[in-house]
Amino acid sequence: MAGRVGAASILAEKDGNENLQRHGSIRKVLHSLVGNDSLLGISARMLDRPKQYRVEDDLNPYQDFLREYALISEYKILCQHLIPGLYMIPSANSGLVWYGVLFVRSGVYKGGIFRITLKISENFPDSTQPSVIFEDKIFHPNINEETQELNVMSVFPVWSKHENHLWQVLEYTSKIFYQISTKNAVNITAAQLYDSDIEKYKEIAQTCVEQSKQNIFHRSNNEDANYIRFQEFNESMHSEARLALLSAEPKMKNISKCGLSWVKEGTLKPCSLTPYKS
């Protein structure tokens, strides 16, 4: 109703005989929206075809921005959780693809360096579960033997943007190497072997580990600028950087306490403690 009154106030006014007189085109005062649509067109749909009008139609021009914002937020949350051994970065070409490397530090797969790719649906966050695909061939109950895709459905049967996050999927990806479960297995052979002959299973797992170590230095056909690449250690090239990393002192030692509000022991007076000076 407010839209109808607002449009009428721009287009016309009442004369003495209560007749509306045109004062010009509404197109001169209403600006275009993103996506080749105008406020005039939207108003027409709202007033003349209310049953066919959908709010989603007008939000379409902004969906790319909303999705990008959601993905940036998800990546920031992932960085805050610091999943041990996991290094992850979005593709330079698409925020819907994330590349990662997982270093397994203990357990049956200790020493493994496994590459993973996280693929996210185009309608994220209003989407289904993301998929996690391993580049290396891994013998594991929860990894499909043919596609090398992780069985995410067993833990996230229903995906909710209000409850589920991408970091949870990646945390689960890491945990399958430390807490092996044969429940809801997609590789039945691996599940049966794990339950019946654990030593044989460990032998095959170590074969996967050794293969992953060899593959990590091989250059992939992936030309994405953010695809994680490794080089074998070269004394002349990397020794200086290695020494700097090993000899670096914790940054906390260089933090000055000057300017902060410190309270002296035994008193409640703010700033009563003498500022520390290095």
Automatic annotation (TrEMBL):
It comes from the Eukaryota. Residues 66-214 form the UBC core domain. Pfam families: UQ_con. CDD domains: UEV_AKTIP. InterPro entries: Ub_conjugating_enzyme, UBC, UBQ-conjugating_enzyme/RWD. PROSITE patterns: UBC_2 (PS50127). This is Putative ubiquitin-conjugating enzyme-related protein ft1 involved in programmed cell death. It comes from Panstrongylus megistus. The lineage of its organism: Eukaryota, Metazoa, Ecdysozoa, Arthropoda, Hexapoda.
